[in-house]
């Protein structure tokens, strides 16, 4: 349950939406690159922070307004315009609702507006040229990282680069 932070796991088939924290300790030695991804949906609020105050903290908590509601208060992928769209998976081989499995989906603007420091579509970092390509991942030179589930904080992390224009 998204509001009570119950236990459980995703089914990886689009049936169970889930929030995802991603960490890469190998890309830059002595550093960690991290992000919050909502590409597969949302089921639990989270915050990524560092003991180094110069590193950005990322947080995402969605309390209401989910465009495609899932089980137990979760939200389906921004790539899906309906529950049936997510049935073959949040990112099905045919591209689903996110352009070429890279660009924005029909509900990416909602996710981007709610959690602007989280991936709202697969290429939210700009790697394939889709926009907005905003501050969705961060490399911290301190590997002492904390992931907090159900943090009680919202997406009030300062916006680094903000663009509301979506190119599909």
TrEMBL record:
InterPro entries: Osmotin/thaumatin-like_sf, Thaumatin
PROSITE patterns: THAUMATIN_2 (PS51367)
Cross-referenced Pfam families: Thaumatin
Transmembrane segments: none
PANTHER family, sorted: THAUMATIN FAMILY PROTEIN-RELATED (PTHR31013), THAUMATIN-LIKE PROTEIN (PTHR31013:SF2)
Protein name: Osmotin, thaumatin-like protein
């Amino acid at each position: 349950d998204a509001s009570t932070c119950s236990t459980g796991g995703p089914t990886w088939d689009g049936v169970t939406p889930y929030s995802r924290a991603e960490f890469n300790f190998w890309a830059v030695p002595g550093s960690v690159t991290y992000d919050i991804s909502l590409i597969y949906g949302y089921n639990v609020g989270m915050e990524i922070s560092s003991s180094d105050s110069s590193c950005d903290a990322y947080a995402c908590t969605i309390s209401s307004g989910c465009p495609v509601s899932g089980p137990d208060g979760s939200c389906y992928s921004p790539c899906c315009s309906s529950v049936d769209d997510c049935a073959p998976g949040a990112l099905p081989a045919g591209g689903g609702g996110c352009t070429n499995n890279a660009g924005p989906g029909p509900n990416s603007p909602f996710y981007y507006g709610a959690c602007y420091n989280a991936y709202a579509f697969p290429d939210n970092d700009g790697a394939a040229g889709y926009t907005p390509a905003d501050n969705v991942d961060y490399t911290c030179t301190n590997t002492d990282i904390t992931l907090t589930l159900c943090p009680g904080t919202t997406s009030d992390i300062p916006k680094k680069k903000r663009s509301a224009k979506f190119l599909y």
